[in-house]
Amino acid sequence: MAQEYQFLANLSRLDSLAKFSKKRAILNLSKGLFADWAKLYGPVLVFKALWQKTGLKRIISEYVKERKFEFDLSSVIFSMVLGRLLDPLSKLSTQKWLKREVYDEEIDGLRLEHLYRGLDFLKENAQNIENLFHSMV
């Protein structure tokens, strides 16, 4: 009977952890261990930190306040930037790639229409966003 594992974390080397155990046995569990899926997480964290540090998240969030979007537009725009940086594709392919390959709770449930609405927002506000960004730099 196969067991299912939801998460796998590397806490430390097993021999280092064994010294804290009453039984100092190290088990080799690697046989038969496999991952059902894997998603990008590290690059997401790095680019998200840059997104915030540059002030782009704050700038876009400021402009979005005036509008009533049923989704987080800043996260949608970030996801398009992320897609352009890591795997430039069409909007449809980007939406599928994000769902299949990227782990980011903020973009769960992202739909293609969100990407197009994000592009419309950027088109309408591009000059103001650029001016505000350049005034901060």
Write the layout of secondary structure elements.
Layout: H1 14-18, H2 42-53, H3 56-65, H4 73-86, H5 91-101, H6 112-136
Explain what this protein looks like in three dimensions.
With 137 residues, this protein is mainly α. It has a domain at 42-136. The chain is built from 6 helices and no strands. The chain has helices at residues 14-18, 42-53, 56-65, 73-86, 91-101, 112-136. Helix 3 (56-65) packs antiparallel against helix 4 (73-86) and helix 4 crosses helix 6. The model is unreliable at 1-12 (pLDDT under 50).
Order of helices and strands: HHHHHH
N/C terminus separation = 59 Å
Question: Mean of residue pLDDT?
Answer: 81
Biggest β-sheet, characterized? Answer: none
- Class derived from helix and strand content: mainly alpha
Number of helices: 6
Helix % is 55-70%
Portion of residues in beta strands equals under 5%
CA radius of gyration: 21 Å
According to DSSP, the number of beta strands is 0
What's the shape? elongated
Low-confidence stretches: 1-12
Summarize this entry quickly.
Residues 1-12 have low confidence and may be disordered. The chain has helices at 14-18, 42-53, 56-65, 73-86, 91-101, 112-136.
Give the key terms.
elongated, disordered N terminus, mainly alpha, 137 residues, single chain, 6 helices
